[in-house]
């Protein structure tokens, strides 16, 4: 008869046991898929918060583009459970005196560099808190690298916030003058609404910063981009294969697509391309 297997040892994670759900952290970076940088951040988070859930929002933000990162978080965070923490490391100012800021809003937590990213996500009335210079030292964290704060500061700080060991207001003083939003908002003009392409997705769709709400008083909207004038469709299927089209996508913003093709490649356009929405004739 085989001996009974040893009893399984259940290790209780170090996060706050009063919380009813396992903490969840989303990661948004411009690190890309190559290299070990994302994995190193995750390793540090797990070391400080064993058992935490980590969800990759995207690591394909254009390099050094906090505006794109803020756009993705602003259009994604509401889908996550309450008390999730959204960590963004798109940080061209790493190693400088730029602040690291945290905030709580809509039953969610946010952590990012002070470089215009979070103002795209949060209302102006939400308090922002800047990490005190002595915070890492008071917690015996290793001296940080000057080129990888994502691993050495953001990751352990995210673990502490997500697990309830600290609140945004605990990490340092209130920040009253954050860097302004890194992406301009779409604006009304005499001809309708002007905006721009914020990002290009996997299919080559050109995704803009023009929210559907801005179109409500525009009759028969038409979308102009790169000398093309397109009617606003409801679905991709309303256009024949091989045709350009515009529609309001699942994020609730105007998108330019090529039915069963790559609109960015076809038009030779990408991030920053101007877009105009006007009333049809």
Draw up the topology in text.
Layout: E1 24-29, H1 37-48, E2 53-58, H2 66-74, E3 85-89, E4 100-105, E5 108-113, E6 128-130, H3 135-138, H4 149-162, E7 174-175, E8 187-189, E9 192-200, E10 206-211, E11 221-225, E12 228-233, E13 244-248, E14 253-258, H5 263-267, E15 274-279
Parallel strand pairs: 1-2, 1-3, 3-5, 12-13
Antiparallel strand pairs: 4-5, 4-6, 6-7, 8-9, 9-10, 9-15, 10-14, 11-12, 11-15, 13-14
Helix pairs in contact: 1-4
Structural features, described:
The protein has 281 residues and is of the alpha+beta class. It folds into 2 domains: 24-175, Rossmann fold; 187-279, Bacterial fluorinating enzyme like (Elongation Factor Tu (Ef-tu), domain 3), CATH 2.40.30. The chain is 16% helix and 28% strand. It has helices at 37-48, 66-74, 135-138, 149-162, 263-267; strands at residues 24-29, 53-58, 85-89, 100-105, 108-113, 128-130, 174-175, 187-189, 192-200, 206-211, 221-225, 228-233, 244-248, 253-258, 274-279. The strands form 2 sheets. A 7-stranded mixed β-sheet has the order 2-1-3-5-4-6-7, sandwiched between helices. A 7-stranded mixed beta barrel has the order 9-10-14-13-12-11-15. Helix 1 runs parallel beside helix 4 (149-162). The radius of gyration is 22 Å and the shape is elongated.
Summarize the structure.
This protein has helices at 37-48, 66-74, 135-138, 149-162, 263-267; strands spanning 24-29, 53-58, 85-89, 100-105, 108-113, 128-130, 174-175, 187-189, 192-200, 206-211, 221-225, 228-233, 244-248, 253-258, 274-279. The protein is an alpha+beta fold and 281 residues long.
